[in-house]
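Exercise: predict the fold of this chain.
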Amino acid sequence: MSLKAHVKEVFIDEYAYRWRGHLVIENFTLLLPGFIAQWFKPGDVVELELLSEPHRLNGVNLLTPQDFRLRRVWENDVIEVWPLHSRVYEHRGRRVLAREAYLEEDYVAIAELEQYHYASEKELVAIWKCPICGELAEANAQPKCRRCSAAMKIQEIKGSIPPSRFLVLELLDAKPYEPRIIGYVRVDTPVPLMHRRIETEGGKVLVEREVREKVFPLNWIHPTFWPRAYKDFETLMERYRELRMLYSPRLAKKLVADERAAMIANVDTAAARIARVVIHPDFRGDGIGVLAVRAVVEWIQERRIPEMKRRKHLVEAIAQMARYNPFFERAGFIYLWDTAGGRPVLFYPLSEEARKRIEDFLSRDKYASRHGGRLYRSRISRVQPLSGPIVIRRISKTYRSVLDLSALSPAMRDVLKAFGVERRIIERAIIRDLDLEIKPGEIVAVVGISGAGKTTLLRILIGACARLEEERYRPSEGEVRVPDNVRLSCMLPGEIEPMFGEETILEHIASKAGDVQAALELLSIMGISDAVLYRARYGELSTGQKERVKLASLLAEMPNLLIVDEFAAHLDMETARRIARRITRLARSIGLTMILSIHRAELLEELEPDKILHVGYGRVYVEDRGSAPPIAPSS
């Protein structure tokens, strides 16, 4: 059964407005979360489709959220309202569900993730309410009521506003040890005022007022929601307490609810604002941030989020992090200016008209034309590539040792003699007659069982590049020729490793790279994107984090040849795959030649090596998978 009708009544719970509400349409009462019901007012036209028979309760035809579909009719357009938006994305072999947050557990997960949003001024990120006595409390994890000891229910995410809507990213194939919700995006109405900060060539700072309305029509942005007195839940509660001093609690609740409802009902814009993007630190730097932004743009466009009225022309984002991480730009956002407070503002055009207005502004504005809509510029430059190949000609490496039992106790000598072990000279060929050529820019993977000779081969290569005279770094026979311009960074665990002091890891990497932004990029590539870790010292890190920081330290030296033994040996498989994929992407982009020994065949898929060296039993079999891409001149 389907019908087109008018909304008769709207109810929103005064405190639990995000959770509880209902609409009365014809003779049906539709149970809806308050964050949906709040956008309707009596007289609005909707289409209601019944999926099952209503439930009779005290003479009311009650429809639960599973019983119906709801669409809004607005200016001859039909907008899907219920069920909530959800879409599955395939991302690097993982299945990610992007859906609007609805359940209490969704908001609990959002509160947990919000603690990773370090730009937030909130130390305690959520407000909780006792379902028994109504007591309110601030906490980051679910608390118990101090009055009645009941488990409290999450009420609101601090800093959000009543119009805020949340899209969560759920990992559908999450392993038992992985988080289920790996990120969220918060969408708000546009900010009402936006001024531009301009730094002139002479160093003077100017402020251009209300710059946005000079580029886009006024009615794209207004009327929006941003009353100064009610910009978040906390100030809403302050307003309630003020009114409660004058009136009864019941009347104070009604006045606050009526004021908020009137402000929300007035919102009707052609723009939306991405107010938060928070990704779990373990999943940053692997494209999840870009996926989140693209998913939310689709949601905004299709459902006209947040108010579900006019067609959207524009999505805006005001994000300081955009200077250091390009995920907004990779998702298609265009940088236009900085706010008066110095925060970058980026826009995503949802219509051709919006795109033309942005292009026109970038071409005619003398300040914007300098950056051309681009904010982020990588500070990791291309390296000067190897000037020629690394050439190995008929090298062999033989180890000679004396097996002597004289220092052992008589009992131990008797045991070994029983196995036929006597004093003797042992000579073992680890590598025999290897011919190999490694071209500039190639990625070479060295594989083989433990003790096969992988480390020996890497020692010989390191010895030739670093001109080490110690015996173990030289072949027994043959020669290794390396280009004159080789700039080596290398790691042989327990033998040659980066040295760390008491400085923070960010200070360590930045001192080597000579640039803080480049250091942040390198740490992000290595999966160290949780800002709390930037201030940590090396000794405070876990074993896996130490391995990734050591790799970042090597890359910060900007070598043109990187040699690493036991690459990703101390990382779980998922993390190892991500790091392998990222370091390969970086090497290809900057012209870095890499030689890595690995223990896991699964990493070959991510490394995409040009050559695989199979080492074992004195032999090295060279599997040539193709040529490295041409090396462009370094800039």
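Check your answer against the key: DSSP finds 17 helices and 30 strands in the chain.
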